Amino acid sequence: MVVELNRSNSVANHFLAEMRDVGVQKDPMRFRRNLERMGEVFAYELSKTLAYAEQEVASPLGVARMMLPAEQPVLCTILRAGLPLHQGLLNYFDRADNAFVSAYRKHRKGEDGFDVEVEYLSSPSIEDRVLIISDPMLATGRSMALVYKAMLRMGKPKAVHVVSVIASNEGVEFAQRHFPANTYFWLGAVDSEMTAEAYIVPGLGDAGDLAYGNKI
Hints:
Layout: E1 2-4, H1 12-20, H2 28-47, E2 52-59, E3 62-69, E4 74-79, H3 83-92, E5 97-107, E6 114-122, E7 130-134, E8 137-138, H4 142-151, E9 159-168, H5 169-178, E10 183-191, E11 193-194, E12 200-201, H6 207-212
Parallel strand pairs: 1-10, 4-5, 4-7, 7-9, 8-9, 9-10
Antiparallel strand pairs: 2-3, 5-6, 11-12
């Protein structure tokens, strides 16, 4: 299942527009906050698909029966760009367990191509749990697929949710081929083009650099 938030009118489009805007991008604090706000929107929408159970809640005047989450997901993000988006998800899934993975593009000298390296993983068991993997950009889809493969060392999840602010058509198609059938893709927008260096067009640029500064 693929959900594209920009296909319906909502305040998420405002957050997304500011992240794309080259003028607003000059304020890294604003960029990080918009990533976080997108995470909150994704969390709310995603929460509608989870399992719930009725529980009694005592108020000062009586007892209310409410449908509350039956379990908490595991939130996984890809360092470093995914941290603000992860925080937005965590603001709503505030009792979730958390996982962090280091994945980066290792460029080949003198070539446009690159390999994706996964170096670090910190995670609880994900056996029979709901796994939510977030990264601001789903470009080629290779990083997301490799992170999911690495996470399988921690168990087999019963459901997987992939959260990205902007994706490419190519990245979505690649990820769909490399994730299990019970995967939901939650995307802010899907763009049709990529550059030779695998940057999404129109996209928004390098999310990690915009959030935390240029790297060398």
